[in-house]
Description:
Blueprint (H helix, E strand, L loop, with lengths): L3 H36 L3 H34 L1 E2 L2 E3 L15 E2 L4
Antiparallel strand pairs: 1-2, 2-3
Amino acid sequence: MLEEKDYQEIAHLMRVIVESDITPKLQKLAEGHELMLETLAPKSRVEELEEEVSFLKSIIKLHSEEIAKLKKGSVKNKFPGGVRYGHPPFCRVKPCHTDTIPRKR
């Protein structure tokens, strides 16, 4: 069985281990935690950005649908001399012979 003196020696060794090994590691961990908290965006800012991203996604979806409708409609646009492909009606590019398909008579 251990005597009181042995218990005191064990306690002293434990304090030495805690002070020399564990305490510095805990301090580094706390410093890293403080740095993370300093650079972390506030929750309110994250919520604002989530709302903005959601809004932008809805706009992108709407624009994609409109573009698809315009593309679908541009194939059906009739021009003198045939159906014009690849250029919207307001385009200033002069059509060439490859842009038109002759009308059937």
